[in-house]
């Protein structure tokens, strides 16, 4: 800037092509006068001297040290396998650890690289690798379901003049079911032949759990399943008609996250108590040959009864008349129970007809009546 022999408004200005060239201009009309530099380069950093020459006064000099800060490049986040993560990291399993590496290149001076979890500082330790990148490796231990959706942010900053550069990822987790339960357990006793609506539900699994019904070691497939509460609750329903053969069996409702191992399976087991009236089977004694029975010989009949609960009364009839003395009677029922049987629902009774008479021949009248709390059967 040269104002010799002319006014300030018509002063001669120029910029060296070896210096700023057209990127700089001296602003003499402002107060204080200053040098405006556009499109600052790293090479512009240095010690600047402002020199003012007067016609009659001594020359004055002022020194200014210019420091140029170069912002770092945006961080890059990698998982423990070295894969770059763009937005979502995982899914991980509850109880596991997450290892994340943040790498930042460039920047002058070297940036400070820090990890924040949900906005809170988690780790500010970093190092510079052999390539000049600044690295901060985060080890976040023992994940639990409260960490689902947490935001992990890597920030890099080397000046307060501008906002830090930042990269964030969201944590995804696979969650085990919290519980499994049968919502509508009916009375302790189920009536054979009646229809019951059984409902099982589970919650807390991500992704939603699968529910399975199992009876007698076999999976029940005729079920209806739905997800509720945005997938947080899974509910399964099936219509069950118990049979006498189901008594003592177990129904299992099993909740399982298919993305987790079997150690996270939850089950509820219901042991069935199915009540039904006696089922009576009457037959000629097993050691007798019906073709060899003669008048005057003794014959006996075997009566096998399945019932739950156990029979409370047993009556032998012939020609509508009760047969006593030679048959299993009501007073013997308790003894029959005490003697036991592999099939606890089965009781066996014998009725002996001494000196069989001709009037028995070909008759099919009732010979046994059994009764329990659930009904009577002949």
Automatic annotation (TrEMBL):
<dbReference type="Pfam" id="PF13927">
    <property type="entry name" value="Ig_3"/>
</dbReference>
<dbReference type="InterPro" id="IPR013783">
    <property type="entry name" value="Ig-like_fold"/>
</dbReference>
<feature type="domain" description="Ig-like">
    <location>
        <begin position="177"/>
        <end position="257"/>
    </location>
</feature>
<dbReference type="InterPro" id="IPR013162">
    <property type="entry name" value="CD80_C2-set"/>
</dbReference>
<dbReference type="InterPro" id="IPR007110">
    <property type="entry name" value="Ig-like_dom"/>
</dbReference>
<dbReference type="InterPro" id="IPR036179">
    <property type="entry name" value="Ig-like_dom_sf"/>
</dbReference>
<keyword id="KW-1015">Disulfide bond</keyword>
<feature type="domain" description="Ig-like">
    <location>
        <begin position="278"/>
        <end position="319"/>
    </location>
</feature>
<feature type="domain" description="Ig-like">
    <location>
        <begin position="74"/>
        <end position="170"/>
    </location>
</feature>
<dbReference type="Pfam" id="PF08205">
    <property type="entry name" value="C2-set_2"/>
</dbReference>
<protein>
    <submittedName>
        <fullName>Nephrin</fullName>
    </submittedName>
</protein>
